[in-house]
From TrEMBL:
Residues 1-12 have a biased composition (Basic and acidic residues). It comes from the Bacteria. The lineage of its organism: Bacteria, Bacillati, Actinomycetota, Actinomycetes, Streptosporangiales. Residues 1-53 are annotated as: Disordered. This is HEAT repeat domain-containing protein. It comes from Planomonospora alba.
Length: 705
């Protein structure tokens, strides 16, 4: 069946994207199961779609998010948010990742019981509060039961119970982990039956699965497979990470107060800062526990001081003059709301001006300025102050603070990009405390708003991925906008899936963007650009997008082999060509043309297979063949002068010729020869003859089955 033949209609599985989704590499069970749907065509194409996406703003947002996930060290946090690089919540956890996660691991109290259950039943569910180390405990349990596990397949948290049962029976000798499983749709009365059936399938397949869920209900009524979980003992965790790195007297003070820290993550952070030796232990403890912030709020600060601190929580690190303007705007909004229904107050012109800068020039306990060269920027004094301030604002204040704060923060979406991103970062911290507030007051209105508001929503969802608990919320919110929520919301979902969600849930992001790329023209245009950004981001972070390329090749192969009507086929190929002809994110560097595919072919030789499949389909389509040939020549030109260029061209050629039918291959070879003299191919993008011959002579063309 060719790409021009009609698609066979199929039902779209509820809650899942179209098409196959491999876990990583060639294994299929990572993704959602179900038939390939017929993508919807939601309305006629508008005359102009440029207003749907601001390319420069999207590029800046992508750079900010990629930098955020590359390095957010506590002492140098440009977002005022402590934390490290984000890990993927779905995909494959290799041996090196397991060893890194289990370095200095301390077993929680119920570890032995959970291990015995996992060995006997091949399934265990760890239920407990957020941020108590359930993810690391799950990895440790799988490592212990499989001694040691070669790799762990990390399944996405939105996998349905029925899908799990059918998936685990398809493969043998696997280790699976699901963190923060979304149990929606599972009645308590059927939970035990579902888990028992899942356990039986795992035993048959000689596979093991650990599921973590965030809830704090008691032991009564739970399945024997579910074990209430708690954090490891704080002093043992401190000793494992700190040792004897500080004087005995100071260590005694630390050990006395370490139980006041709420989570294992805080204890690990305490250990890291103590080993750094830059601040006294008491000061570090106060900051991590939130004592400094709570004492300041206990002192009943003035209204103007509270508003300034609240403004900094959502506009962190701004230049002093910009921050002053934002504080005045927040005060004006607060005044307007407080005076509603009252007679307008006229302030005499001769009133004294408030000496606002003295607030952070007088050794304020919370607010200070950065010591970086150039214009002073207003920041919090402590690493954790920003999140503690947001927590205290939520705990202590009501409508009179939060209503003006809501209106002011919503308006920041239309401000300069760095302010927009900082507002999103503040909302990501608020989502840890009050997710309903963030979703209803900010994300939902922004998702249906202007381009800048949609970018703000996408940024907030990306920054929510810095935390395990809010990452699942970010995925849930985004997927609620994918289908049947309107074009504007679907475009917002596409932007979000190109951001940090593609780091946390790479396979799901590719699948849903592929689905969105087949919707109406407005949605499709944004989804196509977002898909390109996803691959650019993957290459920028680690030079590796192999699993995502393999998944995209599967989607293309599945859709076009089954056959779609010509107009939709051309849109599918246009999406593929957008990825194949993309530049690296650092393409503006002075060393010239930097095709993304050239970099990926050199970084991971295995990527030649899926890239070859994508190019074969693009070259097979007569409507797009000329553009596909030009993009191919440009990619080959990007290989010129690089180590391994000839081998990469040969590998790519084998994949292309083994996929194309003989008759089409002859036409494509002729087009490649002609393209070498085509003036539309820039001289600096033309490959050397050696590389072209390596591609043309690779393998033997054969008919596609």
């Amino acid at each position: 069946m060719t790409a021009e033949e009609p698609l066979q209609k199929g039902e779209r599985p509820a809650g899942n994207p179209a098409g196959p989704t491999p876990e990583s590499g060639a294994d299929p069970e990572q993704g959602q199961d179900g038939e390939q749907p017929s993508p919807s065509m939601d309305g006629p194409a508008p005359e102009n779609t440029q207003g749907d996406l601001d390319e420069s703003a999207l590029g800046q947002t992508a750079t900010v998010i990629n930098n955020f996930y590359a390095e957010v060290r506590a002492q140098e946090a440009t977002f005022g948010m402590a934390g490290g690089a984000s890990r993927s919540i779905s995909g494959r956890l290799e041996r090196k990742d397991v060893e890194r996660a289990l370095r200095r691991f301390v077993e929680p109290a119920a570890f032995a019981e959970a291990l015995a259950t996992l060995r006997e039943r091949h399934l265990v569910v760890l239920s407990g509060a957020e941020d108590i180390g359930k993810w690391t405990s799950g990895v440790a349990l799988l490592d212990a039961v499989r001694a040691p596990v070669g790799r762990i397949v990390v399944l996405p948290p939105n996998r349905k119970a029925d899908d799990l049962i059918s998936s685990v029976s398809a493969k043998r000798n696997r280790a699976y982990l699901i963190h923060d499983w979304m149990e929606s749709g599972i009645e308590a009365s059927t939970r035990r039956f579902t888990l028992e059936a899942l356990s039986a399938e795992l035993v048959k397949a000689d596979s093991h699965l650990v599921i973590t869920v965030s809830r704090t209900e008691g032991r009564h009524g739970l399945s024997p497979l579910e074990i209430p979980w708690s954090a490891p003992e704080p002093l043992k965790l401190l000793d494992a990470h700190l040792g004897r790195a500080r004087p005995a007297a100071e260590l005694a003070e630390v050990r006395e107060h370490v139980t006041e820290l709420r989570t294992p993550r805080r204890i690990v952070e305490l250990s890291e800062q103590l080993r750094g030796g830059t601040r006294p232990a008491g000061e570090i403890l106060a900051d991590l526990a939130g004592d400094t912030v709570s004492r300041w709020f206990d002192s009943s600060p003035k209204r103007s001081e509270v508003l300034a601190v609240a403004a900094l929580a959502f506009a962190y690190g701004m230049p002093e003059r910009v921050f002053e303007r934002l504080v005045v705007e927040l005060e004006a909004v607060a005044d307007e709301i407080e005076r509603q229904g009252a007679e307008p107050e006229r302030r005499p012109i001769g009133d004294e001006l408030p000496q606002t800068r003295m607030l952070w020039d007088s050794r304020h306990p919370l607010i200070g300025t950065s010591a970086e060269p150039g214009e002073r920027r207003v920041v919090f004094c402590g690493v954790r102050h920003r999140e503690h301030v947001i927590r205290e604002l939520h705990r202590r204040y009501d409508y009179r603070l939060w209503e003006p704060l809501r209106a002011w923060v919503r308006g920041l979406a239309e401000d300069r990009p760095e302010i927009q991103v900082q507002a999103s970062a503040g909302l990501a911290l608020l989502a840890r405390i009050n997710p309903e507030e963030v979703r209803e007051s900010f994300l939902e209105p922004w998702a249906g708003g202007t381009v800048r508001e949609r970018l703000a929503a996408a940024n907030a969802l990306s920054l929510m991925c810095a935390d395990d608990a809010t990452a699942t919320l970010a995925l849930t919110v985004t997927l609620s906008w994918v289908d049947d929520a309107g074009q504007t919301q679907a475009m917002t979902a596409a932007l979000a899936l190109a951001g940090a969600l593609s780091i946390r849930y790479p396979q799901q992001a590719v699948s849903w963007l592929w689905f969105l790329s087949s919707r109406g023209v407005r949605v499709s245009t944004v989804a196509q650009r977002a898909l390109v950004l996803l691959f650019q981001g993957a290459a920028e972070r680690d030079g590796d997008a192999l699993a995502e390329l393999q998944l995209l090749a599967r989607h293309v192969d599945c859709d076009l082999t089954e056959g779609v009507e010509p107009r939709l086929a051309r849109r599918v190929i246009a999406t593929v060509l957008g990825v194949l002809d993309a530049d690296r994110l650092d393409a503006d560097r002075p060393d010239g043309d930097r095709p993304l595919m050239s970099s990926l072919l050199l970084a991971r030789p295995e990527s030649a297979e899926p890239i070859g499949v994508l190019w074969a389909w693009a070259l097979h389509n007569a409507h797009h063949r000329a553009a596909a040939v030009r993009a191919l020549c440009r990619a080959l030109g990007g290989l010129s002068g690089q180590d391994g260029a000839v081998a990469a061209a040969e590998a790519l050629g084998r994949a292309v010729w083994s996929t194309l039918p003989d008759g089409v291959a002859v036409l494509v070879r002729r087009s490649i020869d002609q393209a070498l003299t085509d003036r539309r191919v820039r001289p600096q993008a033309r490959p050397t003859r050696e590389i072209v011959l390596a591609l043309l002579n690779a393998g033997t063309p054969r008919n596609r089955p």
